[in-house]
Amino acid sequence: MLFQFFPSCRQLVTGAALASLMGTGHTAASPAQNEPRTNAIYQDASKPVKARVADLLSRMTFLEQLAQTRNVGGILGENASFDNTTVYSFNNGQGGGSISFGNYQNPAYLAAATLEDVVLQFQKNDRLHVPLINVADSVNGVTLLNTTLFPATLSMGQSWNIDLYGKVVQAMSIENHAVGIHWVLSPELDLAVEPRYGRVGEMYGEDRYHVSRFGVAYVKNMQDTDSKGFSRVATTVKHWVYGSSLGGINEARILGGINDFYNVHSYPYMAVFEEANPMALMPSYSSYDNVPMTTNIQYTKNVIRDLLKFDGVIISDYAAISQVLSTQHTANNIQAAGLKALAATVDHELGPPNQSGMEALSILSKNPTVAKAVREAARRVLTLKFLTKTFDEPIPDLKKLNSSLRTADAMQRNLDITRESMVLLKNDGILPLKSSLLLKVAVIGPMADIINPGSYAASDYSTGSTILSGIKKISSDVTFSRGCFRNNDTDFDTMKAEAVANARNAGLAVVALGSVAQIVDTNANDRTDGEGFDHANLDFPGPQNELLKAIVETGTPVVLIVSGGQAFSMEYAANATNAIIHTFLQGELGGDVLAEIITGKTNPSGKLTVSIPRLSSAVPIYYNYINSDRKQVGWQQVYTDYQSPVLDRLALYPFGHGLSYTKFDISGVTVTNNTSTHGQITVKAIVKNTGSVQGKEVVQVYFNQFAPDIERPVKNLIRFTKIDLKPGASTTVSFSIPVSELGYFVNGVKQVDADQYTIFVGSSSDEADLTATKIVVK
């Protein structure tokens, strides 16, 4: 990642520049020419992709090229219904770029069969027979019923198991391709450093290195390029840049300058571009340095195109171009917004919204600057279509569809990642449960009888397991009481009384609390998580905490199960309950695996990738903070209990934390010394399972620098590995780290300092769990 930052032209397109782009003539496209023949180069699958694209472009009118920059939309409603008049007449018959399924609750076969008809009819009607490419989200896998429902991104990030995650994404890729999806809007590489943000569940976690490793694994395995360079499914790294929006508000500004951009926000993207070659990128809704990323020449065009030499597709988020006009007010009309996006080299507009910035360019065919930019955008979109074989295999093989979904291999990978993605936060010894505690179990809470996989998933209760159904498989005497609604106190006294009575009559209370990211019943007010559902505070929504207190006061042992794509403030729960498991956003096997964990059939091995705060007000809470953000040097360090958690922001459960049913000892840490700025650092440690059961431990390596030229974090993760050890077994882990990875950017220029560094090795980011070794780089 050694590259220079070069100053560029102004971020916003000036009035003069807009006039130049728009020109003076507003004329229609030239007449169609070069009608396709059966021996056209672009129709010959044996020809090189570059030649096929060039030939096709030479035959396309301006409007046909412009059509490649647009999305037909998510077309399917319930029962795979769709408006064929709207679809087939899209863009006045000039063709189209992409299409999406739409409603997630459609069965896979029905949706694929319907889309097959649409795509074939659309392609038949198109003058050059250019196919639409099917694009979709893929957080939990395919967004249709009857497919494998994996845990969400945040949950799978807690596994810290890159090899296993790669196998999971392979299964996702196979299923996406089977239903006809050739392009996914994943992975999300944003850093989850703002816990109030509603989309944390779509992210891997708060650390840049951890996110980069999972991002690389996703892109490589989803695209799965064959020997001829064709990809099974194209990926889209997103959102460039996002995740730390002001106040945790969806679409709000990202605060930061050039050093934050290079050292924090762009870090995982740079790694994925270098190692995995994603085929597309999506700018965020947000502004960075007060310029919308969709029209940000400095950080979108200059960095992505000029510095990184990325020649893939830049696709807007849904309606993001029109938001430049309607929300950010940095364009005076929709055409100006489209021109600014085009100037930032955005190639494809996801939507379509009510106003299309790309469609507004249709009257500018005589402007040579616009025509050239549109041609380049079409070239990139068409290249993606050819590289994914969309031209040659535009529709799925329906005869093989059902046999490609929910295979034994996919379900096993789903089970494996689910087992490793739950985090045991607290355990006073009650877990694994003794059989006597399972004689009579009260399952309580508004999250107990739902599947909570996140916003971008199709939930199927006919095949999935809930917490309640999981507990019923391990106990023959189970009572269930909801206790309260998730986000309001309607009938709370009555519901609480029933829950308390059930708890008093039981030997164990399993209480399920949290935040739901889908509308799972008729009460829409219950949804408090996911895109557009940011959090005013981090306590459990509604009266849930009051319900927990009432259950604890019965004196019955309490195992708390937490569900949701976020970190909750749980200081009361941490002090009052016997055990806490955070499941985050699980897939269809969550309830069954939870039952395995609490009975000891599965030993938990998940580790937090987001820090858990003590108080809702004690944020930001991420582990790799800047020292001056937390310490008041020169002031009297005497705080009341009221002040201290807010000012010091000590995590209740830190990044990297996660308990097991066994004990691990990490010792014998050695780090090479006398290292030059061009050398390697070797870190070794002995890990021993000192407990009585087999288990998995995540060995984590962090570093910091003594005296950098700019403020740097107190520590940054730089390596990790997950190992599996039988009781009494030990192994030596070894990490090789190029000294260049200790470096950082100053005003866009990478540097590695001759300085003193500290290498930390241990089981979490907490100082108490780490062994520190100082080295000098000369």
TrEMBL record:
Its EC number is 3.2.1.21. Keywords: Carbohydrate metabolism, Glycoprotein, Glycosidase, Hydrolase, Polysaccharide degradation. It catalyses: Hydrolysis of terminal, non-reducing beta-D-glucosyl residues with release of beta-D-glucose. The keyword Glycoprotein applies. Residues 697-765 form the Fibronectin type III-like domain. One of its GO terms (biological process) is polysaccharide catabolic process. Pathway: Glycan metabolism; cellulose degradation. GO terms for molecular function: beta-glucosidase activity. The keyword Glycoprotein applies. InterPro entries: Cellulose_deg_GH3 (IPR050288), Fn3-like (IPR026891), GH (IPR017853), Glyco_hydro_3_C (IPR002772), Glyco_hydro_3_C_sf (IPR036881), Glyco_hydro_3_N (IPR001764), Glyco_hydro_3_N_sf (IPR036962), Ig-like_fold (IPR013783). Belongs to the glycosyl hydrolase 3 family. PANTHER family: BETA-GLUCOSIDASE. This is beta-glucosidase. It comes from Pseudogymnoascus verrucosus.
